[in-house]
Design the sequence.
């Protein structure tokens, strides 16, 4: 099977498995797991923040950020197709008791002036705006990189209005790799950031939430409240360290494969590549094949290629380190064949 469903399907490399096997461990709830401590220190340094917290997933990292920044009854500003709004099971309302106010972005980027005008005035009728969330790269916008300048403008608006900015950076290292810049070029324009280690970087489990020391101290308590205080967590932190320190540079290879896939699919009659590929995601519209995305995905599966439905007629393909150039060539051939056969 050529698995292009997501970069989350990656399995740990030999080096990651060995790191898990040989690592020293301790009780991380007591702060005594050396592998977790080393990972958190390194992640904070790479992200240019004072402190970092190892969490089990991107969703947990984002939710802890919202819980730590906000109080119940506040309002969260975020992009209309962002993961926190679209794919986290309504957790911000269920857990943090905040309501959302969404802004439609262009390629995932919110217009700073719309963000400014969505901030609530001080009025007894209104909720207080508690947090602004950005997503970089933006998943539903096809892995689009949110420009650093856009982040700077929104961060400045946040500062002017005393509203913190959190970045869902599940794929922020893809954004940095795509622009060829250090990740701190992005993180300088946010208060807190969540980055996933188990997506393109290939770790089996885990994300990092980073911010200033005071924030991370409070976040650690929220993680404990959510049952996320783990004991000998070095077993997963050690491979996550390998992912963080050795897998970032190679993300451009995934981007090149996604570009090749997109170029190949553009030549196929009846298919429309929806996004301009910047990172590791390609989205196609199969509407002109008179097929639903579900039908297209199941035809693909019969031929040995896995992809995901991304809307009624949209299908998403994601490249990662377990996909080869040959896999992409085969995928293009298979899709050309499926698209040529009227069903
Ligand atoms: C942009 C974005 N944020 C957050 C997440 C959540 O990560 P996890 O699956 O580790 O909870 C994802 C997962 O795909 C994502 O794409």
Sequence:
């Amino acid at each position: 099977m050529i698995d292009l469903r997501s970069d989350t399907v990656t399995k740990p490399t030999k080096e990651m498995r060995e790191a898990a096997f040989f690592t020293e461990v301790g009780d991380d709830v007591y702060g005594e797991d050396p592998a977790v401590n080393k990972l958190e220190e390194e992640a904070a340094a790479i992200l240019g923040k004072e402190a970092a917290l190892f969490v089990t997933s991107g969703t947990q990292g984002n939710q802890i950020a919202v819980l730590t920044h906000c109080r119940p009854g506040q309002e969260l500003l975020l992009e209309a197709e962002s993961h926190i709004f679209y794919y986290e099971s309504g957790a911000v309302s269920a857990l943090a008791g905040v309501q959302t106010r969404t802004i439609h972005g262009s390629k995932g980027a919110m217009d700073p002036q719309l963000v400014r005008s969505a901030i609530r005035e001080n009025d007894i009728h209104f909720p207080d705006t508690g947090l602004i969330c950005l997503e970089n790269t933006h998943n539903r916008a096809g892995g689009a990189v949110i420009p650093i300048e856009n982040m700077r403008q929104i961060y400045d608006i946040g500062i002017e209005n005393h509203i913190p900015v959190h970045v869902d950076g599940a794929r922020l290292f893809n954004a940095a790799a795509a622009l060829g810049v250090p990740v701190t070029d992005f993180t300088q324009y946010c208060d807190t950031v969540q980055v996933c280690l188990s997506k393109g970087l290939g770790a089996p489990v885990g994300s990092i939430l980073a911010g200033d020391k005071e924030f991370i101290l409070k976040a650690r308590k929220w993680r404990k409240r959510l049952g996320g205080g783990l004991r000998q967590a070095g077993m997963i932190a050690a491979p996550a360290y390998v992912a963080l320190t050795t897998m970032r540079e190679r993300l451009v290879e995934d981007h090149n494969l996604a570009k090749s896939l997109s170029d190949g699919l553009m030549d196929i009659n009846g298919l429309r590549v929806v996004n301009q590929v910047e990172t590791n995601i390609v989205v196609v519209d199969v509407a002109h094949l008179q097929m639903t995305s579900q039908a297209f995905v199941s035809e693909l599966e019969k031929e040995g290629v896995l992809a995901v439905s991304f809307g009624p007629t949209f299908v998403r393909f994601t490249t990662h380190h377990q996909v080869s150039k040959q896999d992409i060539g085969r995928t293009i051939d298979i899709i050309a064949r499926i698209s040529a056969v009227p069903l």
